[in-house]
Fold:
Amino acid sequence: SQQGEEDPQALSIQEGENATMNCSYKTSINNLQWYRQNSGRGLVHLILIRSNEREKHSGRLRVTLDTSKKSSSLLITASRAADTASYFCATDAGLTGGGNKLTFGTGTQLKVEL
Amino acid sequence: GAGVSQTPSNKVTEKGKYVELRCDPISGHTALYWYRQSLGQGPEFLIYFQGTGAADDSGLPNDRFFAVRPEGSVSTLKIQRTERGDSAVYLCASSQPGVAGNSYEQYFGPGTRLTVT
Structure:
């Protein structure tokens, strides 16, 4: 079952604009991760934010986490056409065996137009 | 270095047939995961291996699904008596050895698109 939901489901912007995607989840987490997926195939890890962190930056990406509201947001600044992809948040509650079972949201399809 | 590879990239099979999907993780990654992604959805966890053993198989939908990793590297996901509802992209991911309470980036393969007709 899906842990969370992304909002919006689809987003279309012009190159150079900022894109904001939101993610809500339901249960307690160790951390939350954002992934990007092109053409419905392999996912690429973008950023990980731990449950005790509130904000994290990586290049043009900014992620926030509000554990009291069980929500996170991903901001992509100065978007480019190459940012066109689906973006997923994934929560990690940890496994007793030391692994990380990721529970993904439903994704936001971002389209950046020239 | 080489990333996670999966073969075949596409598999079309008839309902009722048996299929095997293969995953080659990144060398040195002892943690290996299988996920299934249906159209328009996010990936859903199937099974997790730490080394050779399946540490968590709670995501396998039923007993037609089975996965092995006999030497702690390559893994094979096996599906018996395939059904049309099994059609999806099957993704494999690997990561560094995990420590309880810590998290590591998972590196995903390109997936195998399974179509059951």
